[in-house]
């Protein structure tokens, strides 16, 4: 059973200490805590827009929407054969969303959702939890919009928790636990509001000088 004292507020304190929860799988109601020796982060000035992603931005009228349906984004991220997002975590994330410390960004083309990403905010740190693609490049587009939005909103740390090959191809890097905690300590000194800034457009992403691959 879920620990009854684990509230959204307690969970937020854990993030502020650099610790985050996961479950073994969707059917396991227990949570365990992680503070990895090596931490994945996205430098907010280092997102790589590939040629295929650039073509999508040039030819498709995609747009980013923040918090259109937070619960649906979390559910879409968990809708896979193997997931670490169990029912207690869904409830906790929803609680963090309701107190303004969790957000979801999705990318849409007309009435079609292409993909999305959600995470937890603590200070000027965005702790990315999961992402999904409903169409080709959906999660990549969501990350591109999110990185640009975090940067223009005054955030200075995008925590990806772990570094995967997919994230590395987009510009994410790995840092030591000690370096991560130094960056987190800096991020906790300010409290930017992710909802106070207009989301970037696809033209904003294309105009910004980026590395292509």
Task: Please sum up the structure shown.
By secondary structure, the chain is of the alpha+beta class.
Please describe the topology of this protein:
Elements: H1 8-16, E1 20-22, E2 32-34, E3 38-41, H2 51-59, E4 62-66, H3 70-78, H4 87-98, E5 102-109, E6 112-122, E7 125-133, H5 138-153, E8 157-161, H6 165-169, E9 173-176, H7 177-187, H8 202-207
Parallel strand pairs: 7-8
Antiparallel strand pairs: 1-2, 3-8, 3-9, 4-5, 5-6, 6-7
Helix pairs in contact: 1-4, 3-4
Spatial arrangement of strands, main beta sheet: 4-5-6-7-8-3-9
Give the low-pLDDT segments: none
What is the CATH first-level class name?
Alpha Beta
**Total number of distinct structural domains:** 1
Q: How many E strands?
A: 9
Q: Write the CATH fold name.
A: Aminopeptidase
């Amino acid at each position: 059973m879920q620990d009854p004292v684990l509230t959204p507020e307690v969970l937020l304190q854990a993030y502020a200490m650099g610790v985050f929860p996961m479950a073994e799988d969707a059917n396991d109601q227990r949570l365990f805590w992680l503070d990895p020796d090596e931490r994945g982060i996205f430098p907010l000035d280092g997102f790589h827009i590939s040629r295929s992603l650039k073509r999508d931005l040039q030819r498709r009228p995609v747009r980013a929407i923040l918090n259109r349906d937070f619960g649906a984004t979390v559910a879409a991220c968990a809708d896979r054969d193997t997931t670490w997002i169990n029912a207690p975590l869904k409830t906790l994330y929803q609680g963090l969303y309701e107190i303004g410390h969790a957000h979801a960004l999705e990318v849409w083309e007309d009435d079609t959702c292409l993909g999305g990403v959600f995470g937890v905010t603590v200070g000027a740190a965005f702790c990315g939890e999961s992402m999904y693609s409903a169409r080709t490049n959906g999660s990549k587009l969501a990350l591109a919009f999110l990185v640009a939005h975090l940067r223009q909103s005054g955030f200075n740390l995008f925590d990806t928790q772990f570094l995967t090959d997919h994230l590395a191809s987009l510009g994410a890097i790995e840092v030591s636990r000690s370096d991560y905690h130094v960056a987190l300590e800096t991020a906790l000194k300010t409290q930017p509001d992710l909802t106070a800034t207009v989301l970037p457009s696809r033209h904003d992403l294309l105009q910004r000088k980026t590395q292509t691959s």
